[in-house]
């Protein structure tokens, strides 16, 4: 539980072929699906939960 690698700049990609979601931080050599090596990925915006401070 000591992992806190949540970067806000991480972008999620979804493979157009197999539908797998890949983080931009996991992409080493450009945008490519690590599972099927398909090169067409679309950007997916992850649902960001914003906390609203009520004060
Ligand atoms: Zn794929």
Query: What overall form do the CA principal axes indicate?
Result: elongated
The number of E-state strands comes to 3
Lateral strand order in the biggest sheet: 2-1-3
Q: Structural class of the secondary elements?
A: mainly beta
Ions, cofactors and other ligands present here are: zinc ion
Average pLDDT metric: 83
- Order of helices and strands, N to C? EEE
Task: List low-pLDDT spans.
Answer: none
Radius of gyration: 14 Å
Number of helices: 0
Instruction: Please indicate the percent range of residues in DSSP E strands (runs of 2 or more).
Output: 15-25%
Main sheet summary:
3 strands, antiparallel
Oligomer: single chain
Question: Considering DSSP H and I runs of 4 or more, what fraction of the residues is helical?
Answer: under 10%
Q: State the end-to-end CA separation.
A: 30 Å
Brief characterization of the structure:
With 55 residues, this protein is mainly beta.
Topology of this protein?
Layout: E1 12-15, E2 21-23, E3 41-44
Antiparallel strand pairs: 1-2, 1-3
Zinc ion (ZN) binds at residues 15, 17-18, 20, 33, 35-36, 38.
